[in-house]
Amino acid sequence: MIAKKLVASISLALSLVGAVSGSSVDSSKIVTWDKYSLKINGERLFTFSGEFHYYRLPSPDLWADIFEKFKALNFNTASIYFYWGYHSPKQGVYDFEGVRDISKFLQTAKKYGINIISRAGPYVSILQGNY
Question: Which structural domains are found in the chain, ordered by start?
Answer without folding.
Answer: 2-120 (3.20.20.80)
